[in-house]
Design goal:
Two copies of one chain form a homodimer.
Chain A (H helix, E strand, L loop, with lengths): L8 E3 L2 E3 L6 E5 L7 H14 L3 E5 L3 H5 L1 H6 L5 E4 L4 H9 L4 E3 L8 H14 L3 E6 L5 H7 L3 H17 L5 E6 L3 H14 L5 E2 L7 H17 L5 E3 L6 H14 L7 E4 L10 H11 L9 E5 L5 H4 L5 E5 L3 E6 L2 E7 L3 H12 L4
Parallel strand pairs in A: 3-4, 3-10, 4-5, 5-6, 6-7, 7-8, 9-10, 11-12, 12-13
Antiparallel strand pairs in A: 1-2, 13-14, 14-15
Helix pairs in contact in A: 4-5, 6-7, 7-8, 8-9, 9-10
Chain lengths: 352, 352
């Protein structure tokens, strides 16, 4: 798919927009002022593949420890601030890498200008993030609860920064409705060339939240829209990161191990569900390697149907086959299939 | 979203296309000839909300028991047949409700005509289902591994039926690549007005398969494409049905209970993950009721952000609130929130 051309901003060492790889981000749920707990969670998220982390900054205690947190982690830190421009000033002094702040909500233009000048000095990008739930009464009465209202509201905040000559901007317009989210980003993308942070808000728990996020983020990415993503789940944020990475992998926007496997059907003569789980587990150390592995339930059609896969196995009544790019490499008893597959992958893809 | 206008076909009592509700289907993974196991699985799927069920018919033993299976279930039965037209003839005699069969693959035109005439007599629709893995060498050399190849291949099968004046047709063009699947259906939808059965093939296990299916099916539904869906998972088919229903609900294409909930963040002062799980569990009996329930982590912003929800709770430091359509109904100690919410919903939505 062709990606929409957007400007590039830099969150610390991570470039966003301008065709750079789409980054995956998340947000901590520890009290930010608790440095130990927050750093520990960020490290877990880093390990899971999180590339940018945001923390809530509800008060001065939280703002004051941002530098301490920053010093102990290896991914850019974004401070999420509402209403209070002093918290933003402290956050900037604490050398955060990004701000999420809606300039129209922090009071007078003097206050905004103060934040912007400090952000400019340190080259700190500002994300404007408008959610469907926090639209103003004016916007709602003018446009109703629509994509237009969401986009217009975001553009008002953007205009404030543009008047001050500040363009290190990233924008999000999230709704809890998948359709409204997709409509909003499509409209926004047609109007601006700032990089976009995409996601569905209040998506729900692991099951429904994953489905809504995959639908909304997926539809936008297929359109070439989106420069950084956050999956929002009422769950351990590690799951947000895993889901985000899987979304990117599924659209070939991120390299890494991909496993394709048949649905089971009345033709399947092996325990495909169990076999696939074993393959997934055995290949965990290979999750960064850019290969596709197929686990098929049918010896006759399996290799052909999975000819796009780099490696694969297919199980039959007693005997299974090992194949590479659609060509059969060996016929084996079913119980030897898994080991033979892993051996072949290990030999041909040494982990450094 | 506006749905693409398609022709209507009938699988037994279930209409597909023409603006009828989008149905959710699945496929058994029991040996079809094992009537007891197959019926038992279909009943479980029915209970989960499955509206159409397909069974593999690999041999005559399977074909011969279709009538027995049909007599014991309450949803339309589709026979999945490859290559052997005699199995199709038996299946039709056994009073199945639909066939999945690619006419170009069952041999001579005489054989196809025989199947079509019997299908016509019993008004049995035929699904043409082309998968990216089973494209012919001719198609691949002409178009490469592309959406064009998939669509062209499907249209060749369609043309055979059209030449025989048979138009009770449904089409699928599934790939294991989300992007190729979406491109294929978009192209197909621009060329025909037959109802479309949509899904991603070989999507993988629960985690990756759910994500790929939600992305592909979601993007198409947002375009108004798709009349019936199947989520393919290497998993218990009950999970396919649950995921399919959730996809439809998330796009307001299916009525039912919806739960929205905040992601957790450093501002959250209650155990939101646990509370949301409790709400989900307590509301299981209400899954058919068309309401939206919000579980928010923030007393200040929660009711406003969730003003689209019919009912909701938001938790704070010690005290929480109960709200209805964004208006606060009661302030309560946190431990009483769950019960108060369930009580309000139960009182206002009696289950018959």
């Amino acid at each position: 798919m062709e990606r929409k051309n957007t400007k590039t901003i830099h969150l610390g060492t991570v470039p966003i927009g301008g065709g750079h790889p789409i980054s995956v981000q998340s947000m901590t749920n520890t009290p930010t002022a608790n440095v130990k707990a927050t750093v520990s969670q960020i490290r877990k998220l880093q390990k899971a593949g999180c590339e940018i982390i945001r923390v809530a900054v509800p008060d001065q205690d939280a703002a004051n420890v941002l530098g301490k947190i920053r010093a102990q982690i290896h991914i850019p830190l974004v401070a999420d601030i509402h209403f209070d421009h002093k918290l933003a000033l402290t956050a900037i002094q604490q050398r955060i890498d990004g701000l999420r702040l809606n300039p129209g909500n922090i009071g007078s233009e003097v206050k905004v200008r103060e934040v912007v000048e400090h952000a400019r000095e340190r080259m700190i990008p500002i994300r404007i993030g408008v959610n469907s739930g926090s639209l103003s009464r004016e916007m709602l009465s003018k446009y109703g609860h629509t994509a237009e209202a969401l986009v217009e509201s975001a553009l008002e905040h953007v205009a404030i920064l543009e008047r001050m000559g500040y363009e290190a901007i990233k924008i999000s317009v999230k709704a809890s409705s998948v359709e409204m989210t997709v409509d909003s980003y499509r409209l926004l993308s047609s109007k601006v060339s700032y990089p976009l942070h995409i996601g569905i808000t209040e998506a729900g728990t692991d099951f429904s939240g994953t489905i809504k996020s995959a639908m909304g983020i997926g539809a936008l990415l297929l359109d070439g829209i989106g420069d950084t993503i956050r999956v929002s789940l009422t769950s351990d944020p590690v799951n947000e990161v895993k889901t985000g990475i899987e979304i990117l992998k599924s659209l070939n926007l991120r390299k890494g191990l991909k496993i394709v496997s048949c649905p089971t059907c009345g033709r399947t003569r092996i325990n495909l569900i169990n076999l696939t789980k074993q393959v997934e587990k055995a290949l965990l150390p290979y999750h960064d390697i850019n290969i596709t592995v197929a686990v098929m339930g049918c010896v006759v059609n399996g290799p052909g149907e999975a000819r796009e896969a780099d490696y694969g196995i297919a199980g039959g009544d007693e005997e299974g086959i090992l194949f590479r790019k659609g060509e059969i490499v060996a016929k084996l008893p079913e119980r030897e299939l898994l080991e033979a597959l892993i051996d072949m992958i290990r030999t041909e893809n040494p982990i450094l």
